[in-house]
Amino acid sequence: MAEQQETPELSGTAKAAVLLLSLGEDHAAGVMKHMGPKEVQQVGTAMATLENVTTETLDSVVGHFITTIGGQTALGIDSDKYIKNVLTNALGVDKAGGVIDRILLGRNSKGLEQLKWMDPRSIADLIRLEHPQIIAIVLSYLDSDQAAETLSNLAPRLRPDVLMRIAVLEGVQPDALQELDAIMEKQLSGNSGAQTAQMGGIQTAANILNFMEGSVSAELIDSVVEADDEVGQLIQDKMFVFDNLIDVDDRGIQALLKEVSTDVLTLALRAAEEALKEKVFANMSKRAAEMLRDDMEAAPPAKVSDVEAAQKEVLIIARRLSDSGEISLGGGGGDDFV
After folding, report:
1. CA nearest to 124, candidates 140, 110, 138, 114
2. How confident is the model over 106-146, as pLDDT tens digits?
3. Cα–Cα dist 85/91, whole Å
4. Cα radius of gyration rounded to whole Å, the chain
5. What does each C-alpha distance from 40 to 55, 67, 326 come to in angstroms?
6. What integer pLDDT is reported at residue 194 of this predicted model?
7. Is residue 318 exposed (0-12), middle (13-18) or buried (19+ Cβ within 10 Å)?
């Protein structure tokens, strides 16, 4: 039998979407119930945007999946390894890690974990009257983009205090974390789960600021610097902004460009430094670079907020690729952003 060909043009998320669409509603639902909120959103979005999937592509994706688990049975095999292989090939390495943890380590949604399924505005309403230290712990538990939007929905006078507490938070005692989890559980439904006490810190504060609007982020960091110059400087050193992409090597830029749509890239580069623009052009084919230049020149004026939103979208993708080890991001202080 001929060896199953790969589909390099599809990302791990897109392959997962193709596979799930081929399984039928019941089986796809059975897989997705093990995913966390981000995996559901990412794979669901990919499923909704897939167009013109050819028979060859479907055969290749399904064939690759079957080839990987072929020859294995549910009897007498290493079940952990089996699950890891199945999920890694279905979701891609960068998506599968969290799902594998939830399944193999028995992590289920409860209390704080359930917050990750909620809208940031609803989270802000839920915690806005809590002590700033409690708010800081909750935000440290959330993903950085969700925490950033939640912080944006809190009272402006409260934000600097919360951010400072996040920055100096070195961890939470397990007993205290369980108590907070129990408090959240009284207001939210879910099942019991094990939680980590390693939360907060300078990098967490920097990550949250990276996901906030430029003007709000600048105002917050100014307030922190005013309160504690050393902490403020440490946060700034760890922040990674769009123009820091100049520090990513050529291979990393090429990997990033494969994941970013042309429309988003065109808008994001509008306010970028010339050196970064040239680096992007240099890592594209001559024809693609010329087309991008033409698109940028022909594009009508854009709102600053729209440009910042596009840059934020690129940074989200860059951080995902960094987390999966596909690229390395150089932080403001010269350290890798991980």
Report:
1. 138
2. 344 456 777 777 778 888 888 888 888 888 888 888 888 88
3. 10
4. 22
5. 25, 25, 22
6. 37
7. buried
**Cβ–Cβ under 8 Å, residues 277 and 269:** yes
- The residue whose two tokens read 């860059």 is 318
Question: What CATH number did the domain enclosing 142 receive?
Answer: 1.10.220.30
Of 70, 104, 138, which marks where a domain is finished? 104
On whether the CB atoms of residues 255 and 280 are closer than 8 A, the answer is no
Question: What integer pLDDT is reported at residue 213 of this predicted model?
Answer: 74
Number of domains in the chain: 3
Domain interval for residue 266: 242-323
SS3 34: coil
Region 32-54: what's the mean pLDDT? 74
Mean pLDDT, residues 287-314: 87
What's the pTM? Answer: 0.44
Last residue of one domain, picked from the residues 218, 238, 258: 238
Say yes or no to pLDDT of 314 above 60: yes
Count of helix runs (H) and strand runs (E) in the chain: 20, 0
Give yes or no for a contact between 151 and 212, defined as CB atoms under 8 angstroms apart.
yes
Q: Residue 199 burial (CB < 10 Å; 0-12/13-18/19+)? A: buried
